[in-house]
Design brief:
It contains twelve helices and eight strands. With 283 residues, the chain is an alpha/beta fold.
Length: 283
Amino acid sequence: MAEDKEKSAAAVDYRKLGKDVFEFFTHRTAYNSAAYLIPTLERMKQENPRLRLLDVGAGAGSVSATFAQIIGPEGHVVCTDLAPSVLPQAEAFAESLGVKNIEFKTADVHQLPFENDSFDVVHCHQLFGHIKDPVAALREMLRVTKPGGVVAAREGDRETEIIWPPLPGLKKWHEYVFDSKVAQVHGGTLTAGRQLLAWALEAGVKRNQIEVSYGTWLTSEEATKMVYARGISKVLNGPSRKNALQFGLTEEDIDEICRDTLAWADREDSTWLMLQTEIIVRK
C-alpha cells in the first residue's frame, strides 16, 4: 500500500528514466536557474553562516552543488531526488567542483524523511509541473522549514515557450515533451508557472509571506544552444529512445528531431525562451 502511494506521487516515475535524461540538465546551476534566491541566501548567510539548505527533486545535483558553494563551507546542503539512480551522478558532479558540504538522499517531496523545522532554506526547480499534487508538496516543504526560514520554487510556464526558427524537428520535440504525450497524461501540468502563487496560497501561506518574481529562460548563445541540442540527441539515442517510441514518436521523427535540433543550434539567429515564475515563501 505504501509503495502504491509512493508511485502515485510523481506524474512520471523518474526512477525508471535513464541517466542520459538527468545528464541533459547538468548545465543548470544556482546562478542561471535560481538567481532570484541568491540575494536572500547571501543575507541569511551573513546572519547565520551555518545555513542548512534542502534541494528537492534535484536530479543531477548541479544546482545543489552550486548552492553549496554559495552558502560556504560552514553551511550544508542536502540534495534529494526520487530516483536513487541519479544520486551517484549528483555526487560525482559535486566532487568535480570540489564541493564537500553536501550530502545526497533518496526522497519523495510528498514524504520527506526529515523532522519538522529542519532546514533554513528548502528549494525546488521545475518540479511541480511534473507531480500530481504540488500543493501537498509545498505543505511538506513548509513542514521541514524552520520558522524564519524560506521555501523557494521556480517553475516554467510551458505554454509561453517561443522558438525561432520553428524547424519541424524542433517543433516535434517540444510537442513530445510539453504536450499531453508526456506531461498531462501522467497528471502533470503545462501551466505550473502561472499557478505557482495560487498553489502556495492553497497550501495555507498568507499572501504577505510570499514574494513573487518573474524571469525567462533564454537560450541564444552558441555554446548553450549546442549543449541543449546535443543533450536532446543523447536522450533520444540513449535508453530513453524506447520511451519516446512508446509515447508515439517514430524512428523517422527521432532522426528528424536530432537533425533539426543540431541545425537550430548552429544558426546565428536561433533562440528559445520561456516565462518563469519564482516565489520565495517566508515561514
